[in-house]
Amino acid sequence: SSELTQDPAVSVALGQTVRITCQGDSLRSYYASWYQQKPGQAPVLVIYAENNRPSGIPDRFSGSRSGNTVSLTITGAQAEDEADYYCNSRDSSGDRVFGGGTKLTVL
Amino acid sequence: QVTLRESGPALVKPTQTLTLTCTFSGFSLSSYGMCVTWIRQPPGKALEWLALIDWDDDKYYSTSLKTRLTISKDTSKNQVVLTMTNMDPVDTATYYCARHKVEMATIVNYYYYMDVWGKGTTVTVSS
């Protein structure tokens, strides 16, 4: 299966904008989704279909794609956004691959 | 309201077979675009996708684990079962099931995403 690469850790000052990226060849062909996971909890879908938010997800979360890279942007990060974030996409063999995750710290 | 709940043994011995059940409600696994998928997460590590079964009973397995995994569904009971053979201590993890949706984006491409997750069940592999 193909791989998705994420930066292990990113930090952002409270109220500032942060971009979390995910890179992989499969992203040229397939759409990605993003998941937020807080300690001791199950993951929650925050972005799907490139830039769609499920109901209940704040509009400060947005997604984009360029070539083999997808990005999750949080505009005006809040303390409650501190979490691990994972990208996911299928690959040509049908695997649903997760990135290694990015730990977001809100300072 | 869509819900999923994982159930299974908390402890298995090395070489044993693990059987996990995902019991869901609020949707039909017979409906087009509906799937159930399994994901695991070892302590302190990343999410790892395991397997998926779709509305048409097509099954997909992680390339690295496919020889050990079997996924099946009982639509009448709203359950999906995952078995993993030859368990090893490295398989110690929290196992999640999730609803996975497939939606047409264009004629040649689809959106794939896991929109509702269960709370997970912790499985420890130890003698």
By oligomeric state, this entry counts as: heterodimer
Summarize the biggest pleated sheet of chain B.
7 strands, mixed
Note the gap between the termini of chain B: 40 Å
Low-confidence stretches of chain A: none
Rg calculated over all Cα atoms of chain A: 13 Å
Low-confidence runs of at least 5 consecutive residues of chain B:
none
What is the H/E order of chain A?
EEEEEEEEEE
Backbone CA Rg of chain B: 14 Å
Structural class of chain A: mainly beta
- Run of helices and strands of chain B: EEEEEEEEEEE
Largest sheet of chain A: 6 strands, mixed
Describe the structure.
The complex is a heterodimer of chains A (107) and B (127). Chain A has no helices and ten strands. Chain A is mainly β and 107 residues long. Chain B is mainly β. Chain B is 0% helix and 55% strand. Chain B is built from no helices and eleven strands. In chain B, the strands form two sheets. In chain B, strands 2, 4, 5, 6, 9, 10 and 11 form a seven-stranded mixed β-sheet that branches. In chain B, strand 7 (69-74) and strand 8 form a beta hairpin. The chains are: A mainly beta (107), B mainly beta (127). Chain A binds chain B through residues 1, 29-31, 33, 35, 37, 42-45, 48-50, 54, 86, 88-90, 93-101, and chain B through 37, 39, 46-49, 52, 60, 62-64, 96, 100, 103, 105, 109-120.
